[in-house]
Design brief:
Length: 237
Amino acid sequence: MKAINRVIQYIDSKGVSNSSFEKRCGLSNGYLGTQLKRNADLGEGILNKILDNCLDLGPEWLLTGRGDMLKPEHENQSSEITIVKGNRRTSDAMIESQEIPLYDLDATAGLSAFFKGDKKASIIDTIKIPNAPRCDGAFGVVGDSMVPLLRSGDTILYKEVPLNIDYIMFGEMYVLSYDLGDWEEVIAVKYIHKSKKGKNYIKLVSENPNHADKDIPFASIRALALVKVTIRFNTPY
């Protein structure tokens, strides 16, 4: 087994996609897949990039296959990747094993068009997470409204929700798109709370204190999904 195979094994153990890992380590998109197909050796510069960005990865294991994949816990106080399943206020049945498609939302014409269209064209990878709630898909976080809880580049796993206010679980985190007028669609990750303006409105609440709460008509929402799981990178790409 070569170092490229061990890198893929490490990525699988983290439950993240090759493309997300490549981005975090400063590798070109598709690099790992190409090297794997060629059964090629990884150069010293690439190996150093990976070790610099994966502080829990054992260097000896990566280079030789000897020893443990992960460093002992006391050598790795700061994990690189955090998978958060317990940030929600309501509980779900857990699925023992599921493979969740990871989508490139930037390649679509907006969230509403993405939900209504053929999603297969936007799949870039899959994510495997054991004992997680059932999810429809995953994509990268957009914007900074949920900083410091979530940052741009982190990943959210979601479940689509019907556009009916009766299905809203107030206080939960959602990814949604809504109409600003003149056919302008805004995509945001927000908490949804009840609005003082009445039952036909909702209040969008951010984690970021620099973002003010915003009341919008529920009828302006074009797409809606409940955030079930978040994958947070604890260090920048």
